[in-house]
# Entry
Amino acid sequence: MAGVHAKTITSILYRDFLLLMAPHRALLAAAKFLCYLQTLSLDNRPARWALETSKQLPKGWYATLRRDLLLLDIDVLTWDYRLNLALQVEKALWIKQHVELELCLTWSRMLVWRHHPFPLHLAIPPKPALYLSLPRYLARQCARLRTSAHHLAIEHYRVGNRRRACHLRICQYCDANEVEDEYHALVTCRDTQAIRDQFNVPPRLIMKRSLTIPDRAAAEFVAAIFRHVDKRFEP
Ligand SMILES: [Zn+2]
# Structure
């Protein structure tokens, strides 16, 4: 089975399991702690006095935090603490992680490059990817889609002796003469039309929320497509 770069898979897993990378989590925790300290009163809370002291130190905890947050274009010296600092930091970190891990390499290849009218901004996901909570046989097929671990020509002809240039990885099961990627198999291929009719899932639904499989019906549709594709490779 073909696959994508380990970096891509890592980024997908971080995204789907709702993980910020460890240094980012540490920075977020520090920002939350600073928010907490700012809410304390100066009159009778030693922790707040300690904060005011460390603000004077050139290399203290506060100085380090300020330097790290400046990289996110957030300056704690001028920050208005009526706004939620931690939330802004978390948003900025999600975007930073998104760029660092080059999330846009595979599943999003078709979504971002073909369909997205403007550059994708990664929002803070409210919860882990839905497919992770589905029954195992469905979750497995969705994970295959997310990580490009499937037999479609775009991946099948990526590796080893089989390798062909991208534009030559044509679908051999219909006469459209298109590259057989995820979009082709799910949305346009004549060979999988029967499955689309059967499930009545508008493929747009899967595409719309750029990196998610929106519901169980969509997951069952994806599973049916992959079962169909796998059958071509059974002896
Ligand atoms: Zn086709």
Remarks:
- Confidence is low (pLDDT under 50) at residues 108-114.
- The radius of gyration is 23 Å.
- DSSP finds twelve helices and no strands in the chain.
